[in-house]
Design a protein that fits this description.
- The complex is a heterodimer of chains A (about 325) and B (about 230).
- Chain A has about 325 residues and is mainly alpha-helical.
- Chain A has two domains: about 1-165, no CATH class; about 170-333, no CATH class.
- Chain A has helices at about 5-35, 40-80, 90-95, 100-125, 130-160, 170, 180-185, 190-215, 215-245, 265-285, 295-325.
- In chain A, helix 8 (about 190-215) runs antiparallel to helix 11 and helix 9 packs parallel to helix 11.
- The relative contact order of chain A is 0.12.
- Chain B has seven helices and ten strands.
- In chain B, the strands form two sheets. Chain B has a six-stranded mixed β-sheet with strand order 6-7-8-3-9-10, with helices on both faces. In chain B, strands 2-1-4-5 form a four-stranded antiparallel β-sheet, covered by helices on one side.
- Chain B is globular.
- Chain B has a single domain, classed as P-loop containing nucleotide triphosphate hydrolases (Rossmann fold, 3-Layer(aba) Sandwich), CATH 3.40.50.
- With about 230 residues, chain B is of the alpha/beta class.
- The chains are: A mainly alpha (about 325), B alpha/beta (about 230).
- The interface of A and B includes residues 40, 48, 49, 52 and 124 of A.
Chain lengths: ~325, ~230
């Protein structure tokens, strides 16, 4: 294992989050089984008091979960010079079999944790714990993901050997290779571009419609998730090519580096904030009839729709600017 | 209307020093008028007042104020109700030393976000009404017991609460000052406020101001109403 401050921070942080989640899962199960606000029993009142502590602890844990994704990728990128063949995080993550599974688990964990924060925020606005079951039911979804991710992350960092020869991003994200990354890299530019702009445009229209009429929350939510997936594919398929000004370099990680002005961080941040807002919107829209939240949810869901729309719109704008501002073209590709 | 249903408050639950201060209290206090909760020391009067005024949560049971169950409210809403609906006069006054009478009175109004000029004006009006206009800028540790208590009354009224709760309000006052206090309370009752006192002083619970006396002992209500 390589002793590196961000690695220690990630390992300790993830262990703490997993520990807190496992502790909270006991409360979550009890809430799902016995929560009864009409009861004045000692057990119910103790559960009400306990939920403050658990919700507060989980808020910090989920916030860490979101931030840790970016720290993980930054750390992987930072370690690249230690591995022969690695040029960026792509190569570092490929240095042993746990790198990419950990990344995938972190992506899923960060999105779900972000959505949980939104549900928690809405629940705290109600006087009668209106989303308590949804909130803790949702928390139980995170319970298996985060500890598995913690274990995968520990196996990944623990298994890193500095003398390993790994592959560079040029070969991993090459349309000539095989695998998911290569298939994404091999996506034809024009159809992917059409799919990307169409999805973002559909999301902007749906979100605008939702903000005006308060209908179609599930559509906005679904389109946010779709736009997230399509945008990642678009980065690999064609956006990255314009940033690197190379027709064969599809790496989604090199854009996080200094020589590309760290443009990847704001771009990925926009995608994650957008999909989290969209997912949160869907979850809250599902409970829009909750009596104690009727004065809260309409404005909150409208704001979430605006955030999702703005994030994906801004991402599309940055991508477009990157493509327009460079002399590089992909004509005929 | 304030309603308590099977309310129990246990301190240090599960510990060797566990103590049930209030046990299975069910009580309905109609809005408007003055109620005295009386009983010997340790009977649970102060704890019951704290529960009613949202300053503590019951271990079990429910408390409703004007139909809303407050004992289950999340803390942020409970704080809002406590600030808006209840004015509390503590036995030891709990004034903040080093601050003037005016500053002490103004303190509970700051979190409401009301304009400072309005808070200052309301504090001046209350201090004037309680005969303390000339002491407004005097630090509270320099005030006499009676003056300090009137500052505490003004502080309890600064947010214009509908319920004023007083815990052993005459414990540190002589007979004349105690009567003065009750006259001030009479004025508040006549304004339509609900007054709830915890006291074992006959000057309080035998006063003609009091419309109902609740007798407690060992954390239980022995007699939920009627005149002494």
């Amino acid at each position: 294992m390589i002793l590196h401050p961000p690695i220690m921070a990630l390992l300790v942080g993830s262990l703490l989050v997993s520990f807190l989640l496992l502790l909270a899962s006991g409360t979550a199960v009890r809430i799902l089984r016995v929560w009864d606000l009409s009861s004045g029993s000692e057990a119910q009142l103790a559960l009400e008091r306990r939920t403050y502590l658990v919700s507060t602890a989980m808020s910090y844990a989920c916030a860490f979960q979101v931030v840790s994704l970016f720290l993980f990728v930054y750390t992987a990128d930072d370690l690249a010079p230690l591995f022969v063949g690695a040029m960026c995080a792509a190569g570092t993550l490929y240095a042993n079999p746990y790198g990419y599974p950990t990344l995938l688990l972190k992506v899923v964990g960060a999105i779900l944790a972000g959505a949980w924060l939104i549900v928690n925020y809405a629940d705290n606005r109600g006087r009668d714990y209106p989303l308590i079951r949804l909130k803790y039911g949702f928390l139980l979804v995170l319970v298996p993901i985060v500890p598995i991710e913690t274990a995968a992350q520990a196996a990944y960092f623990g298994g890193l050997k500095a003398d390993v020869i790994t592959s560079c991003c040029g070969s991993l994200f090459s349309s000539a290779s095989s695998g998911v990354a290569s298939e994404l890299a091999a996506l034809p530019s024009s159809p992917t571009r059409i799919a990307f702009y169409s999805t973002v445009a559909a999301l902007v229209v749906a979100a605008s419609w939702f903000r005006r009429r308060a209908v179609g929350g599930y559509v906005v939510s679904g389109l946010s998730v779709l736009a997230f997936v399509v945008s990642i594919a678009a980065i690999i398929s064609f956006i990255s090519l314009y940033i690197y000004e190379l027709p064969t370099h599809h790496c989604p990680f090199c854009i996080l580096q200094r020589e590309y002005h760290f443009v990847g961080y704001p771009m990925y941040a926009l995608l994650f904030i957008g999909v989290i807002a969209g997912l949160g919107l869907g979850l809250l829209y599902h409970r829009r009839q909750t009596p104690s939240l009727v004065s809260v949810l309409p404005s909150l869901t409208r704001r979430l729709a605006l955030v999702a729309m703005a994030c994906f719109g801004l991402f599309a704008a940055i991508s477009t600017y990157v493509m327009v501002a460079t002399p590089f073209t992909l004509e005929g590709y | 209307m304030i309603e308590l249903r099977d309310v129990t408050k246990i301190f240090n639950a599960g510990q060797p020093n566990e103590f049930a201060a209030v046990r299975d209290v069910s009580l309905t206090l109609d809005g408007r008028g003055a109620v005295a909760i009386t009983g010997p020391s340790g009977s649970g009067k102060t704890t019951l007042l704290s529960l009613i005024a949202c300053m503590a949560r019951p271990t079990s049971g429910r408390i409703t104020v004007d139909g809303e169950t407050i004992s289950s409210l999340p803390e942020r809403f409970l704080t809002e109700i406590r600030r808006r609906a209840f004015g509390f006069i503590f036995q030891q006054f709990n004034l903040i030393r080093g601050l003037s009478a005016r500053e002490n009175v103004m303190l509970p109004a700051y979190p409401t976000g009301a304009p400072l000029g309005r808070i200052r004006g309301e504090a001046a009006r209350l201090l004037d009404r309680l005969g303390l206009a000339s002491k407004a800028d005097v630090r509270v540790e320099w005030l006499s017991g009676g003056e300090a208590q009137r500052v505490a009354i003004a502080r309890a009224l600064i947010n214009n609460p509908s319920v004023v709760v007083a815990d052993e309000p005459t414990a540190h006052l002589d007979t004349a000052l105690s009567k003065d206090f009750m006259e001030i309370m009479r004025g508040l009752r006549d304004e339509g406020r609900t007054l709830i006192f915890a006291s074992h002083d006959p000057l309080v619970y035998e006063s003609d101001l009091i419309q109902r006396v609740v007798r407690m002992r060992d954390g239980r209500v022995l007699d939920a109403g009627g005149q002494p």
